[in-house]
Design a protein that fits this description.
single chain, alpha/beta, Rossmann fold, 7-stranded parallel β-sheet, binds NADPH dihydro-nicotinamide-adenine-dinucleotide phosphate
């Protein structure tokens, strides 16, 4: 029987922020499709628990404790993955934070913290994996945007800037590295039920109801909703797909 275009057997993935929420939803999909997965986060116990879960389900996984705002940590996560699994074929830049304050209240150090975590971290990571992917003859970069890559957010200016920036950064990667057979794409999650948005629901009055009312699918997403797109963008099924941004949002971004 022909191999499935979604098969990831023998491939190696690094998922930043893979110890919970959307990152873990994607990591589960990648592992189920056959990839070995490095789970990266600051919380060692949480990352180990996620890696153990993937291993118990029959996958190959390990945890690396790293802060993605540290260039050295990011280089270390790539080195540790190469040592353990032999390569890095798939990079998912998913780690992210939000600080919810309107533009006139936000402090400059809060701006830097969000931009460094959500955007500069991706620069460190793609620069660390590029030589590995180039030498291997190709690779897949999956960056995580947001509905705020498309829309403004009065309560999250730094977050929106980081998520808009990641889309343009990804388009540039796609153009620069197509000759190396590296595809780079962005996933734009809609409103997904995770720790991040549980905070948002507490901090932004009426958010829960507004999301439900606007989403044609009439529900919040769950991390498992992101597994399929991760496998698609990590696999040969997407070899002619690069520089794009795919909403996974139950129709939120097309609703009037
Ligand atoms: P969670 O808060 O559940 O997860 C965030 C993850 O990022 C955790 O695994 C956390 O691990 C990790 N992380 C945060 N800061 C760092 C850091 N400095 N170094 C390493 N890891 C870090 O959030 P979500 O799953 O909701 O979000 C994941 C991504 O999806 C983010 O980029 C977010 O912006 C994006 N997104 C989420 C949406 C949603 O509705 N939930 C919608 C659109 C986009 P640890 O604490 O162990 O470091």
């Amino acid at each position: 029987m022909a191999t499935s275009p979604f098969d990831l057997s023998g491939k190696v993935a690094v998922v930043t922020g893979g110890n919970g929420g959307i990152g873990l939803g994607m990591a589960r999909g990648l592992a189920a499709a056959g990839a070995a997965v490095t789970i990266v986060g600051r919380n060692e116990a949480k990352s180990k628990a996620a890696a153990d879960e993937l291993t118990a389900a029959g996958g190959r996984a390990m945890a690396v404790t790293a802060d993605v705002t540290s260039k050295d940590d990011v280089a270390g996560m790539v080195e540790a993955t190469k040592r353990a699994f032999g390569s890095v074929d798939i990079l998912v830049n998913n780690a992210g934070i939000n600080i919810r304050k309107p533009p006139h209240v936000m402090a400059l150090d809060e701006w830097h913290q969000v931009i460094e975590t959500n955007l500069t971290s991706a620069v460190y990571a793609v620069q660390a994996v590029y030589p590995v992917m180039k030498a291997a003859g190709g690779g897949k970069i999956i960056n995580i945007g947001s509905m705020m890559s498309i829309f403004g957010a009065s309560f999250a200016p730094a977050y929106a800037a980081s998520k808009g920036g990641i889309v343009q950064f990804t388009k540039s990667l796609a153009c620069a590295w197509a000759p190396d057979n590296i595809q780079a794409n962005v996933v734009l999650p809609g409103w997904i039920d995770t720790e991040l948005t549980q905070d948002a629901r507490e901090q932004v009055e009426g958010l829960h109801e507004r999301v439900l009312a606007r989403t044609p699918a009439a529900r919040w997403g769950v991390p498992a909703d992101l597994a399929g797109v991760a496998v698609f963008l990590a696999s040969s099924a997407s070899d002619f797909v690069t520089g794009t941004a795919i909403p996974i949002d139950g129709g939120y971004s097309v609703a009037g």
